[in-house]
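Sorry to interrupt, but I need a hand with the structure work. Could you write out one complete protein record for me, on any chain you like? Could you add the entry underneath, on a fresh line?
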Amino acid sequence: MFYSLANLAGTRASHAARRAIRSVALAVVALFFLAIAVVFAAIAAFLWLATVMAPPLAGLCIAGVLLLVSILLLLLIRRPPAAAVGSKTASASLTSDMEAFGKRLGQNVNGYSLILGALALGVLLGSRRR
């Protein structure tokens, strides 16, 4: 009995390890293709900007945009995690308040203002749940 349990645990672990390795390999390949796409997009943007302005200035614009994107990504990576217990209760009450506001908004508003209000509510709810 212990042998069959150990064998079952071993096969589950090996399947999990294979899935993890496959996921990492696919992520590396996806990042490689993403890097190639970014390089081609930067070249195309440079060629287009070079027709509008001086080529050195176009290169600086492309480099500045890429630098800004990389800084934003680094800031997102270094973002501290939310507090575990305290924020969940506060977030739950805030979420219920926002849901009540959304229901009230839906009863009183029509057309574009309803769509814009729902969009704003969705953005607020989405940012709170992360």
